[in-house]
Amino acid sequence: MGKTNYNRIKSVLAEKNMTNKDLADTLGVTRVSVSNWCTNDSQPSIKMLFEIAAVLDVDVRSLLVSNKP
Question: Which domains occur in the chain, in start order?
């Protein structure tokens, strides 16, 4: 069974022409943390998800994969 994708952080970073390093530096977190979020190996806290959305200038809901088909 494949890995479940819960967030779209990697996709939104690409849409915004930003790198993991850009996001990590802006948020004050490690590049490893951002990498883990982008690969869905771990998930940011709800508070951090809102901070990510603010940095990327997107609605927080656009960072999540819908649970509805």
Answer: 9-62 (1.10.260.40)
Q: What is the pLDDT of residue 23?
A: 98
CA dist 39 and 54 (Å) reads 20
- Per residue in 11-26, is it b (16+ CB within 10 Å) or e — as a string? ebbeeeeeebebbbee
Q: Whole-model pTM above 0.90?
A: yes
- Is 49 within 8 Å of 60 (Cβ atoms)? yes
Evaluate whether 61 touches 9 at the Cβ level (below 8 Å): no
Residue 69 CA: distances (Å) to CA of 1, 43, 65: 19, 21, 10
